[in-house]
Amino acid sequence: xxxxxxxxxxxxxxxxxxxxxxxxxxxxxxxxxxxxxxxxxxxxxxxxxxxxxxxxxxxxxxxxxxxxxxxxxxxxxxxxxxxxxxxxxxxxxxxxxxxxxxxxxxxxxxxxxxxxxxxxxxxxxxxxxxxxxxxxxxxxxxxxxxxxxxxxxxxxxxxxxxxxxxxxxxxxxxxxxxxxxxxxxxxxxxxxxxxxxxxxxxxxxxxxxxxxxxxxxxxxxxxxxxxxxxxxxxxxxxxxxxxxxxxxxxxxxxxxxxxxxxxxxxxxxxxxxxxxxxxxxxxxxxxxxxxxx
Length: 293
Known about the structure:
Helices cover 71% and strands 3% of the residues. It is an all-alpha fold. Helix 1 (2-32) packs antiparallel against helix 8, helix 3 (60-81) packs across helix 8 and helix 10 (236-256) crosses helix 11 (267-279). The protein is globular, with a radius of gyration of 19 Å.
């Protein structure tokens, strides 16, 4: 029983990375109406910024907020410089743009920092929490707390502030928002900035365990996208739950389902995702929505 609980606990904490990435994807979708396939690479870029600050001797409590601010600025600049010129009604063009940004950011990161994996210092220390025969590392505890804090902040932003209300208004209908005096460009850029800031959390949480490299978030991005399908991309709580469930199912499948060891351990999680999408296309917590041009 202890072994099962430990595997479940490890799976949930692994799912924290997927949850953080899925949350960033959901934020940018709710803030701009676009499915950003480059979110993983933006998280990688933010992790490298934090890494550079840590190497320069900055404390973690300063390096991580610095990376969040830089990432938010890059997100806003990407919108103003690239995304705003693409017709939001053309989903093919938006998808192509997402793939292009993914490859472009990956190339920039490789040129600046190289492609060799690097050790990312654990920003949460090296202590271990033990209780009831179970153990949690400082990285696992810190990741859980960080994602919970970001999820709470995003919930407050979108539901309790005028800022979030305006973001959603612009994402749903730019023309009606313009009649209310809202500048669509500024608010959509703000949506990209918010999502990029959230993505920084995914990069910082993943880097110590995965190893910092330009390809670090390739698999987590796929898991994050699966989490948005499982939980429902229109629900911030849903995508976080989806990410945690995928981590849990992957861990349990790899340990207890015969034939699903190694890289095949994701099959159980993806089978559940497919089943949920088949019976509830909007996801477990999502709702059907229409983005009007």
